[in-house]
Amino acid sequence: MDPIANLVLGLTLLITFIWLRNSQRLKLTEPPLVPYKYPIIGHTIEFYTENETLIKKCREEYGEIFSLYVFGRVITIVGKELCPEIFKNHETFDFGDAHRDIFPIDDFLYRPRKFFRNVSASTQIKVSKEFNLYTERIQRQLIKTIDELIGDGKVLQSPLKFFQYTIARPMVAAMVGEELCDDEELINSFACATSDLMTYLSIPPFLNFIHPVIHKNFIICGTGATARDARKTRKARLSNKFHREVIKRKVAPIIEKRMNYMKKLGDACAPQVDMLQHFINAFRKGYTVDVDVVTDFLIVNIFASVHNMSTFLTFGVQEFANHLQFQKELLDEQEKLYDGSTYNLDQINKMKKLDSFIRETLRMNIHIVTLEHKTLSSHYTFSNGYQVPEGRIVYIHAQGIHYDEELQGQNPHEFNPFRHFERNLPAARIDKSLITFGLGKHACPGRCFAINGIKLALHFLLLKYNIRTINDEKVMAKIVGPYKVPNSDKRLIFEKKNLKKMALP
Ligand code: HEM
């Protein structure tokens, strides 16, 4: 067949395919698409500049489910009634697939799609169950870091940056062992691996107007500079390969040492207790293991843990400084527990008011709409009859759930740190009233670890310092599009108290 005939046949097939797909879509009873003024732009500007107002207005007018036109595609937003359906139908709605458009982790690490599924989650479940084996070293490293970074007191200019380092060191201890806890280069990579990429990740996806793949490839290219290319420039810090090379260089000798040890003493020898060892065990073939694979799994866990934990630790410290009226009651609990030694899990579990304070921090500082899931089946019919087609990204109006009176009790817009203490709801418990960690089968497996880490950090900070803002001014989270991020414009003051002696086990 000649090329012209080929082209005509190809175009005919393409048009038929698009027509068939669209005609099939036309049959769906889609959620109402909120009218917009400007074609192509749709709701994009309001979504990014006045998200809270836009979503509130749409909820009032359209209720539980509606669609918006943002960055060249229709997205659907659901509220508290339909949200459990998203998590329950995890084969239809996939968080990882939707999140990959924003944070293409497999591509960053040159791995096939879904390469990191399951192993990361199952490792975290194991780690959570053995958390009591991690508590001592986490406390030791937290106290050391706080001493080094704040010492006799400090005014913190950029609290999030500071708390990234506070969390990074105990995470080095938990992930690869205490042997590397004084390695500043490694601590820096743990602290900054995620936030350094934010420069690229937070660029609004204008290229999605053409096609989502173009924006995704732009991020991948932007962050893809090698350490060698980038070391001498500011770009070094924006490159995913840079931190990957540092981490691999640091852990490779440790892996080799452990493999030799196991070879010498056989499988019966007591393995190290840390995430690295779990990954070695998961991927070793005899007494060899692919160091690149183990490194990449560590990196995925760093991406999942350090930035999230430091963000909520920052929010926690800011909420503490914001609410003078609750400080005494929270402090009393910490002082009663303090005996100068390290805490075991039972003692950490006694920090019930602090736990409730953390749950309230997680509740109040949730993004406005978040937990986007991609529809994987040909379509999905919600229990109220509305249908969404394959490929549709469905967001959850998380703030609506977290500010709902029926779910949260009285005055849901107010920060009440003891709200969950009274209802006996621990911070790590996921249910329909707290979705910061997701819900259902794929809910965050690292949540107990995260809560305990944040709790210990807050416990030591509260005991050691009077924490306040300049002129006792309230620090509100910054809203960037649909996201809430810690405010880095307001400084935090840490004044050292006359505490007897801070334990350094
Ligand atoms: C405050 C801190 C944290 C927050 C807010 C958070 C939040 C989340 C969320 C929302 C998800 C997706 C849930 C879903 O698919 O429905 C998730 C997944 C995950 N998180 Fe966390 N996380 C935190 C800390 C951690 C820590 C400390 C670790 C590990 C040490 C961790 C490891 C993971 C892993 C491995 C997954 C993937 C689970 C899967 O695909 O089944 N997270 N996390």
UniProtKB/TrEMBL annotation:
Coiled coil: none annotated. InterPro entries: Cyt_P450 (IPR001128), Cyt_P450_CS (IPR017972), Cyt_P450_E_grp-IV (IPR002403), Cyt_P450_sf (IPR036396). Its cofactor is heme. The keyword Metal-binding applies. One of its GO terms (molecular function) is oxidoreductase activity, acting on paired donors, with incorporation or reduction of molecular oxygen. It comes from the Eukaryota. Keywords: Heme, Iron, Metal-binding, Monooxygenase, Oxidoreductase. Heme binds at C444. Belongs to the cytochrome P450 family. PANTHER family: CYTOCHROME P450. This is 9244_t:CDS:1. It comes from Funneliformis mosseae (Endomycorrhizal fungus).
